[in-house]
């Protein structure tokens, strides 16, 4: 079988003009992520999957590295159509190289020789058709960093919107004004992993904190539904001072942005750090509440964090959505998105009618799609 690089080189499309700048001498600046790489002829960007050939920037196209249906709560979105089924798809590559990445087999392709995930040939129409066959309400680009494959995401999302599906990104948030404006007409939900509030820590992960903070501000200003997740890693990003700065930053944009603080377990190259426990999460929750955040969720430890899996009205305290892990046990948000007790508007994207828990976990496909593995020539 040909090398993965050769296979991916055959599945490309020219970059959208909105995401590039001609620097002359066949050099191109790419605006798909916060690195804003100036890419010489014959070279890829930091992501390894956007590359310059003869003064033209080529980007990933026509494949997926995996698809999976899950409860939307797994993304996690807690204030967007609870109980709905989210159909996830992804490509290969990332602009960061986090040592604890749970999706490293796809995200670190072309960077780590152990990261091997044979891509499947597919079209936007086929992806959307499969999502509909599974009963999905939302189509989500995830698994790798979706910003670096934005042209493909927009092609898929156009088909999804035409079919009545909602769309979303699960992203590290390392964007640019250009790429967020490019995505804005075609995306409904955006989850950002705010991994730290230290530029030094972001350098360790292969990025900078500045573009991520600016992107969070911009995503909220553009009117996309935004939720933020911080994977709490003992000894890395869990100091009280860092968590205080992080939560005060989020609250400074809006106290209504849901913040998920989730438990770490050893993965990929970070196998010598202890797992996060419930006490760690609850300490972070307390700091977030002191910063003024109204909707905080402690994740990945079902049944161990008390009320912090549930959605409660910030005004009267009424429990509106009761959860155990990804499973909804009770749902009481009114059809107009208000608290039934005090009539306060609950921030989010709520369905006019709650359809119950659509997906089990793990979700068992209604009908298995058959897609062909790309083997190259």
Provide a compact summary of the structure:
With 377 residues, this protein is of the alpha/beta class. The protein has nine helices and 20 strands.
Q: Give the helix/strand class.
A: alpha/beta
Give the fraction of residues assigned to helices.
Answer: 10-25%
CATH superfamily of the largest domain: Aldolase class I
Q: How large, in whole angstroms, is the Cα Rg? A: 20 Å
Overall mean pLDDT stands at 94
Beta strands, count: 20
CATH-derived topology of the largest domain: TIM Barrel
CATH class of the largest domain: Alpha Beta
Terminal Cα span: 9 Å
Counted up, domains total 2
Describe, in plain words, how this protein is organized in 3D:
Helix content is 23%, strand content 23%. A hairpin with a 2-residue loop joins strand 5 (51-53) and strand 6. It has an eight-stranded mixed β-sheet. Strands 1-6-5 form a three-stranded antiparallel β-sheet, with no helix packed on it. Strands 2-3-4 form a three-stranded antiparallel β-sheet, with no helix packed on it. The protein starts with a helix and ends with a strand. The longest helix has 14 residues, at 240-253. It contains nine helices and 20 strands. The mean pLDDT is 94. It is globular and about 60 Å long. It folds into two domains: 4-60, no CATH class; 63-307, TIM Barrel. The relative contact order is 0.14. By secondary structure, the chain is of the alpha/beta class. Helix 3 packs across helix 4 and helix 8 (240-253) packs across helix 9.
């Amino acid at each position: 079988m040909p090398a993965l690089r050769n296979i991916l080189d055959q599945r490309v499309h020219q970059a959208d003009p909105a995401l590039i700048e001609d620097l002359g001498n066949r050099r191109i600046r790419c605006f798909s992520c916060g690195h804003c790489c100036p890419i010489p002829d014959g070279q890829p960007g930091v992501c390894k999957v956007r590359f310059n050939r003869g003064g033209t920037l080529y980007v990933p196209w026509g494949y997926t590295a995996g698809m999976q249906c899950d409860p939307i709560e797994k993304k996690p979105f807690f204030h967007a159509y609870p109980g709905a089924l989210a159909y996830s798809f992804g490509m290969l590559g990332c602009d960061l190289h986090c040592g604890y990445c749970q999706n490293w087999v796809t995200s670190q392709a072309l960077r780590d020789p152990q990261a091997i995930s044979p891509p499947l040939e597919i079209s936007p129409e086929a992806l959307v058709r499969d999502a509909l066959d599974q009963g999905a309400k939302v189509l989500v680009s995830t698994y790798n960093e979706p910003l670096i494959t934005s042209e493909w995401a927009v092609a898929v999302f156009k088909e999804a919107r035409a079919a009545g599906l909602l769309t979303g990104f699960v992203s590290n948030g390392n964007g640019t004004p250009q790429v967020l404006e490019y995505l804005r007409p075609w995306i409904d939900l955006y989850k950002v992993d705010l991994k730290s509030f230290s530029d030094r820590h972001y350098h360790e992960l292969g990025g900078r904190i500045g573009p991520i903070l600016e992107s969070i501000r911009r995503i909220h200003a553009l009117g996309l539904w935004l939720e933020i997740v911080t994977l709490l890693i003992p000894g890395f990003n869990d100091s009280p001072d860092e968590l205080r700065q992080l939560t005060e930053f989020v609250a400074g944009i809006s106290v209504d942005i849901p913040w998920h603080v989730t438990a770490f377990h050893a993965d990929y190259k970070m196998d010598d750090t202890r797992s996060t426990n419930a006490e760690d999460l609850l300490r972070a929750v307390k700091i977030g509440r002191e910063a003024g955040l109204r909707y905080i969720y402690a994740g990945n430890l079902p049944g161990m964090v008390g009320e912090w899996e549930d959605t409660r009205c910030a005004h009267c305290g009424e429990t509106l959505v009761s959860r155990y892990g990804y499973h909804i046990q009770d749902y009481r948000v009114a059809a107009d998105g208000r608290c039934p007790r005090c009539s306060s508007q609950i921030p989010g994207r709520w369905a006019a009618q709650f359809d119950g828990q659509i997906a089990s976990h793990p979700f068992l496909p209604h009908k298995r799609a058959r897609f062909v593995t790309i083997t190259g020539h």
